[in-house]
Design a protein that fits this description.
The chain has 143 residues and is α+β, with helices and mostly antiparallel strands. The protein has one domain: Roll (CBS-domain). 48% of the residues lie in helices and 20% in strands.
Length: 143
């Protein structure tokens, strides 16, 4: 698994989305229920933003806003870094590192089709490392 598309194909393409008119409370509830750290904000099937745990803390809690009265449009991150299905996992990792983010939506034709998280990248790297170790152990035992 070396691309974002392969990653979302492996982990499943279920994506937590809400419209920009939903509230920060709605997003917090969805993230809690699904055990995830971000929600993709979509209007008319198009990606318009992302709302993360960090957004909740910085733009709602710390500012003393009422989560049930604050729309995602007011507090989401609108300038969203994205990947395509063809983006390599190394590129995804570099974008996450440089932008200091933990979730990267995967888009095709302007439509969000999945999400790659830092945890997903860590799992993929672990699997690669285990496979490499297995091959090296086989090589050493044969020579």
């Amino acid at each position: 698994m070396h691309t974002a598309g392969q990653m979302i194909g492996f982990k499943g393409d279920e994506l937590a989305t809400l419209p920009s008119s939903a509230t920060a409370f709605d997003a917090a509830r969805l993230m809690t229920d699904c055990h995830i750290g971000s929600v993709v904000v979509v209007d008319d099937d198009g990606l318009v933003g992302i709302f993360t745990e960090r957004d909740l803390m910085r733009r709602v809690v710390v500012e003393g806003r009422d989560a049930q009265a604050t729309s995602l449009e007011e507090v989401m991150t609108a300038q969203v870094a994205v990947a395509t299905c063809d983006t390599s996992l190394d590129e995804v990792r570099n974008v996450m590192r440089s932008k200091r983010i933990r979730h990267l939506p995967v888009v095709e034709d302007g439509r969000a089709v999945g999400m790659v998280s830092l945890g997903d990248l860590n799992r993929a790297q672990h699997d690669i490392d285990v496979e490499t170790i297995h091959y090296l152990e086989q090589y050493i035992s044969v020579t």
